[in-house]
Amino acid sequence: MMKNNRQLKILYSLLTISFAWCLILSCIILFKTELVSMDVMRLNNVASMRKTDGEDCTLPPTEGYPHCDMKIELLKANWRSDPCYKRHGVNGSMCSILIYLSEIESWCPVLPGRNILPAAAQNTKMGAGHAVIRDSLKGLYPAMEGRIEFKWIHQRISSMEDIWVEAGRSFSAKYNLTERTAKHILVHPGFITREANTHMAENAFTGGPLGELVQWSDLISTLHILGHHVHLSASLPEFKKFVRTNTSVCPSQPSVELSLIYTDIIGLRQIEVLLSDSWMRYQCMMRVLDSFGTEADFNHAAWVKRHDLYSPYGSLNILLKQFYTMFPHTPDNTFLGFTVQSLVGSQLRSTSRAQQALVYGKSATFWKDKEAVLDVIHKYLDIHGTVDKSAPIPSYVKNHGIIKGSEVHSLLRQSKVFVGLSFPYEGPAPLEALANGCAFLNPRLHPPQSRLNSKFFSEKPTFRELMSQHPYAESIGEPYVWTVDMHNLTDVERALTAILNQTIEPYIPYEFTCEGMLQRVNILIEKQDFCYNMGGWPPLSALQVVKAEINTSCKQACQNKGLICEPAFFPHLNNARQFASYGVTCETSELSNLYLVPPAYNKKNNHCLFQSDALLFSCVRSHESFTRICPCRDFIKDQIALCKACL
Q1: What confidence tens digit (pLDDT) does each residue in 239-277 have?
Q2: How far apart are CA 188 and CA 143, in angstroms?
Q3: What is the pLDDT of residue 604?
Q4: Is 60 exceeded by the pLDDT of residue 127?
């Protein structure tokens, strides 16, 4: 009997447990059914809203937008809390909320089917009008007058006004420029801002570096002559007036809708911090003036950390083509350049040329340990300098001290040789010498200088090696530029003798003339688009594919064929189908962000390597195991930034 009772108790316990599990399972099923029901209701509501709004409100994948869902819920609950939302079209519907969070703020991806107008088109709607070549620079002056930050820039712009106006007339006579939109363009040179505290604008009048100021002056002149609306900013409060910044409720309203923002690396860091959550809206508009160039290794923050390549100018995570260089250092960046002031033939002929040389060097440190070569030059020519009067230089040098640019040009027109002292690197002065009919003595560098052995380059975001003081001038060559070993005094004398036995005519490469810069910048503004049409320029018809040798970069492989590497074409080649069309069969393949050489393949096993991160495409890297498939293009003589089909 007791045994039967125990069996009954066990059975009862099992039935109780089974009943409990049934209840739990039922609840789970009911809960899931309720969730599904709620999802169906939500989808029905969205579908209803979509129908009501007449818009396709299917939200695309939100990868890269981690706060999108939260922002949707917040705005659904609070869209009536501030009238600014209504001004931006929010009416409580899902469509209006998603449109606001993707187009006014940048929390969510843009909806499929939404034809978002580029900023230039928005400006047209706002009455920016057509861009017409201007016949004066005076419209720029009120924004610069009385401001120490722009004093030197103002002086250079006004001194070259006649040259710019004439270049504008010549340029407009050669090309149809009638279909261009006048864009609102913000110019924010970070290195002269009050927040940067570099004092470079003030130091420009006491012998400070002028290369960057020359480039900013010429960029501003170019934008204005081309007919665009140029807005100048020299502080963060000033910059803030032109952008939408997220406040606690609603973004601030800018005074204009910008199409482009020109800044430098200092300015870019300032802007990124200032904009914070609004940064994504403006990132693609950035054009970053970068004197010496930036390479993929230093631009990609994760790569920098992985390979310990810190640079104060690196880890910016923008497209390499958004960096605008002073000279065409690397095809990975965009060549912006500057202009070389020139005089017409009659003005040059009116100045008699003496038996004299002018030394390139405003700082006494540049002259250190150069007595031997200066002694040799002094055997042939009188030597003049423009260095601080207190500098310890040879007594035979006629020192004019720190003088204005116009006075330097006058000295160049009186001289036969412009003498480099190995530093500063890659400045504008050697091209100014050529423009004034003065040959340039360009020192070779032994060993080549780079971040690996030079204090100057140690923090620059590039591994580029300089073989001479001025590589661009070196490429021009004789009779204008004589690249010599300044420690080999026999070579120096040989070069001097050759220079003095001929007449050097003034020479400026077209890309460094005012008209050449107008042509180049106009095309870049009209065609180079990192926001909406990244694959459309340069035209794919310009692509010429070259297979590099092992340990050869695409820059070198293209150059060996008389071409230039064009990184805009890398995505087009970055797949097995394109490899096959060029005779490469991929037995195996790998999509990776661990290399800088893709697209490439290993000849031994036909293993193909494709790039998974667009920020790591590089023209300048090579590998001991992989053959690179290189995207090359032609270029216009003396206008390397443009291909023949680019105009």
Answers
A1: 999 998 765 566 667 778 899 999 999 999 999 999 987
A2: 13
A3: 93
A4: no
What's the pLDDT at 491?
96
5, containing H or E segment:
helix 2-53
> How many whole angstroms separate alpha carbon 421 and alpha carbon 406?
22
pTM for the whole thing? 0.83
Is the same domain home to 174 and 305?
yes
Tell me which H or E stretch contains 231. Answer: strand 229-232
106 and 199 co-located in one domain: no
Residue 343: pLDDT band (50, 70, 90) is low
Place of tokens 């509501």: 45
Q: What does the angle CA 372 – CA 375 – CA 380 come to, to the nearest 5 degrees?
A: 140
Q: What is the percent of the chain where pLDDT is above 70?
A: 86
Residue 491 maps to which CATH number?
3.40.50.2000
156 closest CA partner among 141, 170, 178: 141
Look at residue 498 in the predicted model and tell me its pLDDT.
97
Q: Are 209 and 317 found together in one domain?
A: yes
Residue 159, token pair as written in the block: 């001194």
Give me the residue label for tokens 């170019």: 222
| Residue found under tokens 């870049």 | 524
Q: If you search the block for the tokens 């999802």, which residue do you land on?
A: 39
Final residue of a structural domain among 278, 309, 335: 335
Q: What is the total count of domains within the chain? A: 4
Cβ within 8 Å of residue 561, ≥6 positions away: 544, 546, 632
Both 143 and 288 in a single domain? yes
With contact defined as beta carbons under 8 Å apart, do 316 and 289 qualify? no
- Please state the separation of Cα 195 from the chain's center in Å: 22
| Contact of 272 with 296, CB cutoff 8 Å | no
Let me know if residue 6 belongs to a domain.
no
Residue 348: pLDDT over 70: no
Q: Which residue has the tokens 């320029």?
A: 537
Q: State the angle between helix axes of 151-159 and 211-225 in degrees (0 to 180), rounded to the nearest 10.
A: 60
Q: For residue 280, what pLDDT is reported?
A: 82
Q: Mean pLDDT throughout 377-383?
A: 97
Closest by CA to 599, choosing from 571, 625, 562, is 571
- Taken in order 283, 285, 291, 293, the sign of the CA dihedral is positive
Range of the domain at 558: 535-633
Residues 545 and 616 occupy one common structural domain: yes
pLDDT, tens only, 132-183: 999 999 999 999 999 999 999 999 999 999 999 999 999 999 999 988 999 9
Angle at 146 between CA 140 and CA 149, to 5 degrees: 80
User: Cα 384 vs. chain centroid, distance in angstroms?
Assistant: 38
Q: Is 521 a domain residue?
A: no
10 assigned to some structural domain = no
> CA 221 to CA 339: how far, in whole Å?
10
Neighbouring CB atoms inside 10 A of 67's CB total: 13
pLDDT given at position 112: 82
The answer to whether residues 155 and 56 belong to one domain is no
Whether residue 34 is predicted with pLDDT greater than 50 in this model: the reply is: no
Terminal-to-terminal C-alpha distance of the chain: 105
Torsion of CA 17, 23, 28, 34, to 10 degrees: 180
- The reply to whether 523 falls in a domain is no
Q: What kind and span of H or E run contains 271?
A: helix 265-275
Q: Token pair of 111, please?
A: 């909806």
Last residue within a domain, chosen from 487, 504, 521: 504
Residues 145 and 422: their CA atoms lie apart, in Å, by: 37
| Length of the chain in terms of residues written | 647
Q: Tokens at residue 247, please?
A: 């406040």
Domain identity same for 270 and 402: no
Q: Are residues 321 and 377 in the same domain?
A: no
